[in-house]
Known about the structure:
Layout: H1 3-27, H2 32-47, H3 58-80, H4 85-91, H5 95-106, H6 113-130, H7 139-160, H8 167-189, H9 193-199, H10 202-229, H11 232-235, H12 242-252, H13 260-277
Amino acid sequence: MPIRDLLLGLVVVIIFGGNFVIVKIGLEEFPPILFLVLRFGLVTVLLAPFLRWPTGRWRDLLVYSIVLGLLHFSVMYTSLAVLDASLAAILIQTQVPMTALLAALFLKEGFGWRRALGLAIALVGVVILVGGPERSSPWWGVAGVMAAACLFSIATLQMKAFSDLPATQLNGWLAVLATPQLLALSLAVETGHWTAIASASTVGWAAVVWQSVVIVILCFGIWYRLLSRNRVNDVMPLTLLVPLVGVIGGVTILGEAMTRSLVLGGLVTVIGVAVMQIRWRPPKPTVPP
């Protein structure tokens, strides 16, 4: 990856890692799917004036909105409501090997020994980290995060098909299509909508604004651009830094437990990412004229 793209990717994944804390704060005041309705609804309002009619792309956009907007986020937020932020930040990293495997199968992207070695080291770090957070979490919450990781891997491959679509357009139409789907799901399975909205504090609404503006419009916009300019297997390994940031945020802000396994697992994960991202090449020999 070009150094500029690498630095942008690092900034985005740091924000993504800290976002687990923001989501947990928001989920204390809103039901999970209602929180998503407010998030995507605000994105729709902000981006609607800039949207252009996507002629010939409706079917692809609708499928994308179902996979990412409806399924991934609803499963992820519902699971995160019952899990520690640090544990969720770790488990979601199963999307990296899933995406690499799907990219090799469907996009014919290579999977050489260096990437395999780095991925193996990073996964060892994730395994070490799993021993750190509280293990008494509901099994369905753990399974839900891993299912959400699989759905995000599928959505990541779908993003490559929208490489010609500006990030503002993709984000905007995702919000437009996902908002009514999420609203219907929320009305069907959740209660207390008006009570939650009326009693929400400034902190709760700030979490909604952060999700809409910083995460969806800014960070996902940059992420789409990185995926359109680079190979999936070069971009996705950066997300292995997310658990490190998520664990630090969970410990320092939410008061979750810090253990040696968290520190060791985080270091091993970063080493794995370095192996996957840094290519040591000998200088080219000088050819005489």
